[in-house]
Amino acid sequence: MRRGVILASSTAAAIVAAKLALYEDNVLARDRSGLELVKERIVSSSGIVPSRDEQVSKICGSRVDKPFDVLVIGGGATGAGAALDAASRGLRVALVERDDFSSGTSSRSTKLLHGGVRYLEKAVFNLDYGQLKLVFHALDERNRVIQNAPHICRVLPTMTPCFSWFEVVYYWAGLKAYDLVAGSGILQLSKYYSVSKATDMFPTLANECDGRKLRGVVVYCDGQMDDSRLNIGLACTGALAGAVVLNHAEVVSLRKDADSGSIVGARVRDNLTGKEFDVHAKVLVNAAGPFCDSVRKMANGSATNIICPSSGAHVVLPGYYTPENVGLIVPKTKDGRVVFVLPWLGKTLAGTTDSNTTITPLPQPHDDEIEFILSAISGYLNVEVRDSDILSSWSGIRPLAIDPSVKDTASISRDHIVHVDCPGLVTISGGKWTTYRSMAEDVIDAAVKHGKLSPLYGSSTANLPIMGAYGWEPSLFVKLAQSYARKKTTKDGRVETVAIDTTMAKHLSTAYGSMAYKVASIAQEENLGNRLVRGHPYLEAEVAYCARNEYCETAVDFIGRRTRLAFLDAKAAGLALPRVIQILAAERGWDEERCEKENQNAKAYLSTFRTSIADN
């Protein structure tokens, strides 16, 4: 009898297992078919996005009886990622951003894709499994980002200097643990290097700090990216996948159903034209970063704040402070913080701070933050770190979040939270750049569940390359240099044909991926081959390309997000500004009044980027 029961139980278990396996196979097949369809749509478009006018027409076309499935508020990394994720599932999705894609925190990061060495240290010493899970998860996502945007991302070795033999053992063991946690996703094994080898690799590294001799370095690898270029790529890929994405479109109020009180849409103002319109949606996703509390209070005026803003300042110095392919981490400053010194786009990026701040659209670094960064790195370098060398500096606001569903609000989360504030509104906040994709997937999962939506496919963004990655390879810059020339106009009005040099070709390849061919073609065919400013690889053709195919609508959009001139060299950005406005005016049909307005807005924007403290 018992044997019969056991056999019956085994048979039932086998049936359940078979059904589960079949279900999983169906899910995988469904997700795979969704991925292939999205890829096919992107490739067949040749990377040409719908125009902004088309997007405005589509978003104005929503009705009460034909709403979008999802309306995303916020065009930063998480918002753009959420729109792409929803589109990859076959959902009807729209995204609105009051300024530009990546205009806030997402363009003001430390440019790292990392698991978090500091979080691993806390996890070990505090026996904190939650922190350990954060590191595991972030390392997985780090590799996905690099895989899906290989032209914008790279592997960056980073040195940890050791000034005692205890530090050598301590950091070596800690970074070997980091390797272990990364598992098969490891980028490169961490290694110890002697003093002589370390100074060969990093010539400006100090041999002595605070009276202590350098004993060597431990080098580990993480990822580095151009944050706003990646964000723009996400928004444009979303548009190619079927999402309606609209920058410079601000939510001014939320629409509620008169009977149920549920949020059913938003009143949106096109900040370029002043026109207002309603957007109807089954679920709204609040991905407004530091400003998500403002959106939540549109739905419920008494909602308590969940954002605890933190300021992160950065300083940009000339490229001679660091080698081109190796960074440096100052593992512990005088007040216990960590500071990075990293090569980035031909310059040196140093930061960051972590200070309480107030929320503002255009945060500025304070003099004491800049002085702290310069002081922190000066002891680790054998050259004078001069205030007069500051090319640019900026501050970003980290939207650290307190989960409103947790009673203990004393602990601020470095992870992200997804919260349903009221029917129809799902908020996501917290997290970091590295995990934007999984954050987007989580919030769309929540939106699907909350709104009882019916996606055609599962999320496929884990393996979905962004625009520019299709057909890209590391040697693409060679093909650009060999196949294209650029036509430039001299001061006396003559048109000259000159080569696209290696520096320009590498820049175009890493900024635009396979879309660089289109930029090079404009430079060659439309006499837009001049540099915008001396000392930088940016071409006039990029202004025209970005206006036509990356929703570049203002001069600030170009100098701040489509290129990184403002972040790399604020004075150079000011010098390039007149020509940028001139080309955009030709593309957009601006009159003199609009051109003057663009000039004033751009100068106000650039004034928030500090150069030498003595200049301010």
UniProtKB/TrEMBL annotation:
It catalyses: a quinone + sn-glycerol 3-phosphate = dihydroxyacetone phosphate + a quinol. Keywords: FAD, Flavoprotein, Mitochondrion, Oxidoreductase, Transit peptide. Signal peptide: none annotated. Residues 459-594 form the Alpha-glycerophosphate oxidase C-terminal domain. One of its GO terms (biological process) is glycerol-3-phosphate metabolic process. It is found in: Mitochondrion. Its cofactor is FAD. Pathway: Polyol metabolism; glycerol degradation via glycerol kinase pathway; glycerone phosphate from sn-glycerol 3-phosphate (anaerobic route): step 1/1. One of its GO terms (cellular component) is mitochondrion. Pfam families: DAO, DAO_C. Residues 69-437 form the FAD dependent oxidoreductase domain. GO terms for molecular function: glycerol-3-phosphate dehydrogenase (quinone) activity. Its EC number is 1.1.5.3. It comes from the Eukaryota. Belongs to the FAD-dependent glycerol-3-phosphate dehydrogenase family. This is Glycerol-3-phosphate dehydrogenase. The lineage of its organism: Eukaryota, Viridiplantae, Streptophyta, Embryophyta, Tracheophyta.
